[in-house]
Amino acid sequence: MKIAVLSDIHSNLEALQVVLVRLEQEKVESLYCLGDMVGYNANPRECLKLIRERNPICVAGNHDYGAVGLTDIEGFNDYAKAAVLWCASQLDQEEKAFLRQLPVVRKEGQVTLVHGTLDRPEEWGYILSVQDARMSLQFQETPLCFVGHSHVPFVFQEGEDYFRWGQGQYLLDPAKRTLVNPGSVGQPRDRDPRASFVLFDDQAWSIQLVRVPYDIATTQQKVLAAGLPVFLAQRLAFGR
Q: For burial by CB atoms within 10 Å, which of 29, 103, 149, 161 has the most?
């Protein structure tokens, strides 16, 4: 089965729409979402609607929980805090109820989904180094784990001392625990502004890291029109 893995959409409607078109072209059969559907950009309700229509298998991100009062946003930077408060003001009670019921970790057969790290998922830690990855792997009970949060795509396999980066296809070894970050749909931070996601073939046990361009200027205009911090619009053009 071909499965799409999306993370960190962050209310970016233009990026999400382009990604969903690509998923239709790829004849994707199922959708995993690793959290942070809201935050940062100007279309939280529209993005939630598009994702939910596809009956995804989801976990929560820190911005999702922040928008519904389930995580303390005092630790957020000023830009993130302003955005999550604005998003919270846009969501209706039913949308908030959907975010509130999402788990922080979910297992689907041989795959685990989490937004942050598996060692302390409710604390929203980042996997930014080999040491971080090895720590999370110690708590991984399935051969494969998809993780988000850092907005940087990577593949890390047990026994290796380096991350694999970059667009392309990777054949995984099911005998070795593997971490995969699909990158961010709505706010990439690897200096590539294109939307990022993963296609996973659970029969071939392979993944493809995919990048697609989208209309950044329109997203930026919406961010500014909503009164969100200017930096949140500017950063989209640089992928950081």
A: 149
